[in-house]
Design a protein that fits this description.
By secondary structure, the protein is an all-alpha fold. The chain has helices spanning 5-35, 40-59, 64-91, 111-134, 150-167, 173-193, 202-205, 215-226, 232-261, 267-280, 283-290, 295-319, 323-335. The protein has a domain at 107-335. The protein is built from 13 helices and no strands.
């Protein structure tokens, strides 16, 4: 029986793709098992996370079985995510890079830019506590009460939030207040100041470059989000959540800090420290709002955020772009990943 040329061509393409995929998977596995022992503090973090999570779960009456099972499943999912990112990276046509200084040399150090980033991060943390105090969630006088003009500035932001809530979408005014504040302090301010300090890092990876590496995550997120129904309103909400907290957090943390830390630390440690700082900013909200009577749950969820930050940080490192991960961050917040 005659076989058409198109059938032969399709089998040839499928065979070639299977070979490339097998090769990329092999490279990803080899890279993971080669790189992990070179980062002992990353191993310490993962062990500490596992021990703390199990201990905290046991402290609130959860059985050993129910404490261990979700931990193992979660770690396996995150490990698979890292392998998937690496596999897609090795499948791509872009130049090779690795987690070694030989292939991926450290950029020039810029202490002024790094100091500026940490000052804004510290102000961000203080701003979170100040906001919780003003809402009555935390005791004490608001930390920024004595800052000249701060009260007037917040009143102006809240008034803008009320106007946007009435004219745009009926989301809480405090959401718009946080959106404007985030865009001002964590997007616009770094864009203006960091170049003046000599830091020129291509706008912190502000692009969709190598979006294919994030494609599986985006497809899962978009599928879960669309399962609740797609409408003009839901698209508008997604756009707003993409701006805040998606873009403001991802750009400031993994777009600006992570490359800066690469000047001082090896790639894995730059990703780890960024993830830790990212997780710490969530602690006040978890302790004083979401889990007010369950400190163990607050600490466990903060550890989960740090672990997610490791995966997203690795995705940013491999893709050299922030926008796909900012979109996935928004989708994760909307669907509750």
């Amino acid at each position: 029986m005659a076989v058409s040329s198109s059938s032969i061509s399709n089998r040839s393409f499928a065979g070639h793709l299977a070979v490339r995929l097998r090769s990329a998977c092999g490279q990803a596995f080899r890279h993971l098992f080669k790189a992990l022992p070179a980062y002992p503090w990353l191993i310490v973090f993962l062990v500490a996370y596992a021990v703390l999570r199990v201990t905290l779960n046991l402290s609130i009456g959860i059985t050993w079985d129910n404490a261990i099972r979700p931990l193992v499943i979660g770690l396996l999912i995150h490990a698979f995510s890292v392998l998937l990112i690496d596999t897609l990276y090795h499948l791509g046509p872009w130049p090779a890079q690795d987690c070694s200084e030989k292939v991926d040399p450290r950029p020039a150090r810029n202490l002024a830019a790094l100091s500026f980033w940490f000052m804004v991060w510290l102000f961000w943390a203080v701003q979170i506590v100040d906001g919780l105090q003003r809402r009555g969630a935390m005791a004490g006088r608001p930390l920024l009460e004595g800052l000249p003009g701060w009260l007037l500035f917040n009143q102006a932001l809240l008034a803008a939030g009320q106007w946007l809530s009435a004219c745009l979408l009926d989301l809480p005014p405090v959401f718009y207040q946080a959106l404007i504040s985030g865009l001002l302090f964590r997007v616009l301010l770094p864009i203006l100041i960091l170049p003046l300090l000599g830091y020129r890092a291509a706008l912190g990876g502000f692009s969709f470059r190598r979006w294919q590496i994030a494609a599986p995550f985006l497809l899962i997120g978009l599928g879960a989000w669309a399962a609740n129904g797609v409408s003009i309103r839901s698209l508008a909400v997604l756009g707003l959540v993409f701006l805040y907290p998606g873009l403001t957090e991802e750009w400031y943390d993994r777009g600006w800090l992570q490359p800066m830390l690469r000047s001082w630390l090896r790639p894995g440690y730059a990703i780890l420290l960024t993830a830790i700082l990212f997780g710490l900013l969530h602690l006040p909200e978890y302790v004083f709002v979401r889990y007010t009577d369950a400190l163990a749950l607050a600490l466990t969820n903060m550890g989960d955020v740090m672990l997610v930050g490791l995966v997203w940080g690795y995705g940013v490192y491999r893709s050299r772009s922030i926008l796909p991960w900012a979109l996935y961050h928004a989708l994760s917040d909307l669907v509750g990943f």
